[in-house]
Each structure stands twice: as structure tokens, then as C-alpha cells.
Amino acid sequence: MAVAPTSTTAMVCGFCSVGCSLDVIGKDGQAVSLTPTKDYPVNLGMACPKGWEALTPLKAPDRATTPLLRAGRDGPLEPVDWPTALEAMTTRFKAVQATYGPDAAAFISTGQIASEEMALLGAVAKFGMGMVHGDGNTRQCMATAVVAYKESFGFDAPPYTYADLEESDVIVLWGANPCIAHPILWERILRNVHHPEIVVVDPRVTETAAAATQHYPLLPKSDLTLLYGLAHLLIAWGAVDKEFIDRSTQGYEAFEAHVEAFTPERVSAATGLPPDALELMADTIASGKRVSFWWTMGVNQSHEGVRVAQAIIDLALLTGNIGRPGTGANSITGQCNAMGSRLWSNTTNLFGGRSFADAGDRADVAAILGIDPARIPDRPSWAYDQIVEGIRDGKIRALWVVATNSAHSWIHQNDMVELLGRLDVLVVQDLYPTTETAQLADIVLPAAGWGEKEGTFINSERRYGRIRRVVRAPGQALADFSIFKLVADAWGCGHLFDEWSSPEAVFGILQRLSASRPCDITGIEGYGELEAAGGIQWPCLPAAGTRVLRTTPAAAGGGPSPAGPALAPPAAAGGSPTPAGATLSQGARQQERRLYEDGRFFHADGRARFVWEEPRPVAEPTSAEYPFILLTGRGSSSQWHTQTRTSKSAILRTLYPEKPYVEISPADAAALGVSADEWVLVRSARGEMEARAYVTPTVAAGQVFVPMHYASTNRLTRPSFDPYSRQPSYKSAAVAVRRLTESRR
Ligand SMILES: Nc1nc2c(c(=O)[nH]1)N[C@H]1C(S)=C(S)[C@@H](COP(=O)(O)OP(=O)(O)OC[C@H]3O[C@@H](n4cnc5c(=O)[nH]c(N)nc54)[C@H](O)[C@@H]3O)O[C@H]1N2
Ligand SMILES: Nc1nc2c(c(=O)[nH]1)N[C@H]1C(S)=C(S)[C@@H](COP(=O)(O)OP(=O)(O)OC[C@H]3O[C@@H](n4cnc5c(=O)[nH]c(N)nc54)[C@H](O)[C@@H]3O)O[C@H]1N2
Ligand code: SF4
Ligand SMILES: [Mo]
Questions:
Q1: Could you give the CA distance from residue 734 to residue 718 in angstroms, rounded to a whole number?
Q2: What is the Å distance from ligand 1's center to 296 Cα?
Q3: For tag attachment on the chain, is the N or C end more exposed, with fewer CB atoms within 10 Å?
Q4: pTM of the complete model
């Protein structure tokens, strides 16, 4: 009897940005199981529950297997063939553009498809279909870090490599809960043999805070004051690296003058932390030889997130904790390919961190792609919230939503759902027609998922890794790549993308677009080398190459981004790319690499900038009617966002509460007469949700926490945004809590 052949294919996980590699075992053309890759430099043989269960969501009974078209305005979604769906989509989008102008059609992209796919989407939508406005769910997530890095370092280039977690003697986790959100990064911290101090700054006693050596439960959104207070103490003690500051930074004197006013008394009052706690924290940073700062959504999702992120960067610059092993001001990304979206989605930035507003950049890209420069929009896209406001104003009439579930995840959900309903046409491209957003669509395009298609993801440490097709997508579902090609053909602009014939061909185009940019990957010898090398971090030049890297000396990131009062003017305004300070020469093949080792940054003068601003109050303080501060975020390592994928696994479902719950302190529960597990109503000025009371001392009195994974959570959140990054402030709203009577349930 013949033995059926088995095969093992390594690929990067499709959930979080850690970017673990998984070996998928195939038999008879089916993926039968998986196991974490032993020798991959990221996960070293480990995976979290989502990784282990990554194949299960592909087999869910509610997979989209055909395109769907809504019958009439309010009829049901009905199966149609691809030509019918594409014809309906392109005809309606063209009709909207003919009546209201090309700007009236927009798209929302994602950090969860391959780089090659998001690049093709950005190119087809903007250069082929004439759209100007397209943003992504990465706005909800990474926009703050992008703007912070651009202004401070001259390019959106996080410094670190994961090995830094193992090299530090002090690890500061700011507004980050890796035990839940990046479990394998936490495992990497546990491998650190230097007995590091692990400092957690989070209002809640998270799983990570409980495991840390120091926890600072600051009052929500008092981060900026705390960071300036730490700088104040470090400067007062002389615990600063003057040599590094003089050589590699700009703006120190003015920063020193700014933090003068942040005395321990003031900082203690604003943060709720006693003065001796501030001293301990500052002393821990001062005493560390290799201090690394890591931040995530507790920072990015704030009304002043950009300045908080930059204050973290300021601390690293002040103490010279950058460019050396175990150091860095390190933003951890969220989605599997959030970093790919930052470089290649062609939404906020023109390809490769360029600027749409820069004529030189447009000419560059047009020449590389062999297209007419007039096809490239000469202004930046609206940010996600501005597209949403555009729907309200009737300026956006057609929307194409790809691999994101806006009707669940966007802030102030009742409003969002109402606005999506106003569109002339909503197209949703997803694995499942059952998502909250797909249910509102006029047209659903059935997409293949992770494991069913080819391409690359870029993880948090700038590492390109491969995703592979090991399973056939069900029914007529197609890889997003193929869908974008079909849409281009149906639109009549397919000829512009002849060279974009396969994901690997597009990878070659991205390499050309990256040449001489800080994100240069011209040294990678195609997919084959990525697979053989265990992923490769950008930048990656041809062996022994040296290049002067160019950046666009334009204002930062998304939307109107006025430079803060303290931000030094760009060294060269407008015009074409100028040589930046940084040069790069390297053997490309080390497995772990960090940036800024020569103390030179991407601004034209090679210096990083100290950036700061006076702290501002939150948009919605608590009141007599809404006395609690609402915090939201990740609830468990087994739940992914809006749960379209993780809820399909019976194993994962056993690892988290099925019903929505709200964490509330014992003191508040007692005052409200609420007992454990009882149903309560959580209400804000915008909406309400029912949830079980989880009475726990992990939240402070006056605060409540609700995971984002439940569909009703964002009914409560308030649409306020960081002015520079336009990232939503998901972690601050005022709510009321009360017991629910039995009749209500
Ligand atoms: N299991 C799982 N893992 C995930 C995801 C998932 O859905 N599920 N999503 C991925 C994505 S896209 C992302 S972006 C990351 C997010 O990863 P994290 O940012 O680590 O997760 P969050 O729970 O959103 O927020 C982190 C912490 O911020 C704290 N916080 C709230 N307000 C403040 C504040 O004012 N100051 C400070 N210092 N902290 C505050 C919260 O209490 C919370 O513990 O996770 C990724 N990993
Ligand atoms: N209250 C609150 N809200 C939040 C947050 C918070 O902390 N608090 N966090 C915010 C953050 S950081 C993020 S990143 C967002 C995430 O918000 P979303 O992006 O809306 O969340 P997901 O559930 O990951 O949605 C991804 C969708 O893409 C589909 N999908 C998966 N793979 C593919 C694919 O290969 N192709 C296609 N076409 N579709 C695919 C999935 O089925 C799913 O419907 O939520 C934000 N919302
Ligand atoms: S830590 Fe992230 S990348 Fe690794 S297995 Fe879990 S979800 Fe996947
Ligand atoms: Mo995210």
C-alpha cells in the first residue's frame, strides 16, 4: 500500500505582529496540523494558543464561498458569480465618481494581508481607479508610532531587534500587556539571563504587571506628565548621556527647560503615584546599563499619543539608550503585517515612506513603476476618521473595506453603523460574510485567508517573513491578490498592472521602490532567500553595499500633522528627496540587527530630535452622570480583535468568557451593590452594553475595563483623536455602571 506523502511548509503566523513561524504539515493536499518552527529566530519553537489553532478558522462553516450581491437596497445578500459581482462593483463605483468626483470613492485597507497584496490594492485604487482617499485599520493602531518616529528620527523606523529583550538589564513596558497581546515576546523576556528589572506602566494590574518586578499604576492618560517628571529627575541627578546628546540629537536645551516645571510634587498629583515611586522608577532607569523602552496601545491610543511616544523616545535619547544591544525606544506593532502596511499600503504614505505631496517622490515612483506621474494623487489621503466624516458630509459615497471589521472595531460604533448604511455602495472583502461589516455590505467579495495564499508579512522588528499557500480556499474564494487583479481588469485599468503578475513579481517591484530608502531591501534575493534565511529584517542591502539613504523631508504621517511647537523645522522644505544623515553599510545576513548603531538618524543632519508639548486634558472627563473611566483593550491571548477568526475554534472558545464582561474594582462593586458575575449595564453618552461584572482588584476604583472583542464595546467609546496621528483614543471615555434588573435580561 502506498504511503500518502506528507510535506512541511514553514510560514509566519497570521495573527499578531510577533511574527512566529509555524510549520504546517500537509498530507494529500490538505493541511492536517501544525507545530511551531524550532529554529526560527523569532519564536524559537514556541507559539501561543492562536498560533496553534491557526488552521481552524479556515475550516469554519460560515466561510464566504461565492461573491454575494444585495438584492435591491434592503434585500438579502444573494450568491452571484464573480463577473456579476465585479460588474456591479465597478459600475457603481464609476457612477459615484461620475456624479460626485473621483474623491467620492474610498477604500479602507488593513494590516492583515500580505505586503504584496496591500501594495497592489493601493496601486489599483489610487493609480488605476482614481481614488485619493484610502486608509487602513493600522490607523487604529500604529499611526501614533509612525508620526512619532518620523518626527523624532526622520523616518518611521523602529530601532530594535527582539534579541534586545534578552540583552536589557531594565525593560520598561509602557501601556503594553505582552503576556496577553504578544505572548512570545514575553517568553523572550523570560529568556533574559541578566535578571532584568521589568517595569510596567499601566493603570491596571495586568497579567504582565503582576509578573513584573515593578508596577506603576498611574492614573489613565497621565503618561506625558510622568515621562517629563522622569526626565526632570534624571536631568537633576545628572543621569544623562551628554556625549550622546551632543553628538546625536537636537533640541536638548529647550527640552531641559521644558521639563524643569515637572517637579515630583506636580507629577505625583497628576499621576497618582507617590514621589518615592517616581524616584524609584527614575533611579531604575538611571542605574540600568542597557535600558529598553517598549510601548503599545496604552500609549498609541491616546488623545496625546504622539507626544507620549516621543517623550519615551526623549528618555531613551536623554540616557543614550539607543543603538546598543538591549536598548531602544521601541514601538511594538499589533497586526501580523502592520509594518507592511506602514511601508507598502500606499495609503497615508506614497510607497516606501514617501509623500504624496512631494513632486519629486511622485516622479520617482512613476519612473520606477513606468506610469504617468499624473496618475499619482498629489495630496495625502484623508485619515480613517476623516473618511468617516466624509460619509457624513456626503463626500464619500462608495467604500471598499478589505480585511477589517469596521462596524465592530471603529470608535463610537452606533454612529459608524449608521454612516455605513448611508453609503451608495459598500463593498466588503473578507473570509466571512457574517462579520458585522459584511452584514451591512451591498457586495461581499469572498477572500482566501492566511494559509491559502502567498506573500510576505513584516513583523515588529522589521523582519520580512513568508506566508504560503498550503490549503485551497473554499468554493470560489480567491486570494486578495487575485481579487485586486480582477477588479483592475473589470475597471479597465488592468494593463497598468501587467508587471504585477504574481506576489513574487510584486515583491521585486517593492524592492525597486525601496532602493536607497531607509527601508531598502534590494539585497534580498527573492522569496527563496527569505525562506532559507528565516526571515530578513529591513534594511537589507546587497552584501557589502553602502548607500546614502534618502528620506522625504516632509511633515509627518497621517492627515494634517502640524509640527509641535518644539519640533525643529525640517532641514529642507519641500522639493525632492535629500540625502539623509544615515548611511548604511552592512552584511545583510545577520539574523538580528538594530538601527542607529552609529548614532546617526534619518534627519538630514543625522540627529534625532527631542520633541515635547504641554500635556492636555482628555476630551471627556468623568462627571456625576458618568463617574467611571472606561479602559478597553485585549482580554485574553485566545481572542483576536472582533473574533471573526478566533471564535471559530472550539479550543480557543474554552479559554475565554463567551459573554461580554466588565472588570470593576471591589470598592466600586460594593458601592453599586453589584456582586460577582451579576449582569450590569455600562452606559456612556453614546451608547450602552450589557456585561457581566468581573469584580477584581486588578482595576483601580473609579476605572472599569472592557475587552474590545465583544461587539457592543465600541458603542461606548468616544470619537476623539490624537491631532497629529489621528489615531482614535480607545482607552478613555466616561461611563456609568448600574445593576440590571432581572426583567431586563
Ligand atoms: N490575544 C491578542 N493579541 C493581540 C491582539 C488581540 O486582539 N488579541 N491584537 C494585536 C494588536 S492589533 C495590537 S495593536 C496589540 C495591542 O497590544 P497592547 O497594547 O499590549 O494591548 P491593549 O490591551 O490594547 O493595551 C495595553 C494596555 O494599555 C493599558 N492602558 C490603558 N490606558 C492607559 C494609559 O493611559 N496609560 C498607560 N500607560 N496604559 C494604559 C491597558 O490597561 C492595557 O493593559 O495586540 C496584538 N496582539
Ligand atoms: N474599544 C477598542 N476598539 C479597538 C481597539 C481597542 O483597543 N479598543 N483596538 C483597535 C486596534 S489596535 C485594531 S488593530 C483594530 C482591529 O480591528 P479590525 O481590523 O476590525 O479587527 P479584525 O477582527 O482583525 O478584523 C479583520 C477582518 O479581516 C478578515 N480577514 C482576516 N484575514 C483576511 C484576509 O487574508 N483577507 C481578507 N480579505 N480578510 C481577512 C477577518 O475575517 C476580519 O473580519 O481594532 C481597534 N479597535
Ligand atoms: S505570539 Fe503572535 S505570532 Fe506568535 S503564535 Fe501567537 S499570535 Fe501567532
Ligand atoms: Mo492593533
A1: 8
A2: 6
A3: N
A4: 0.95
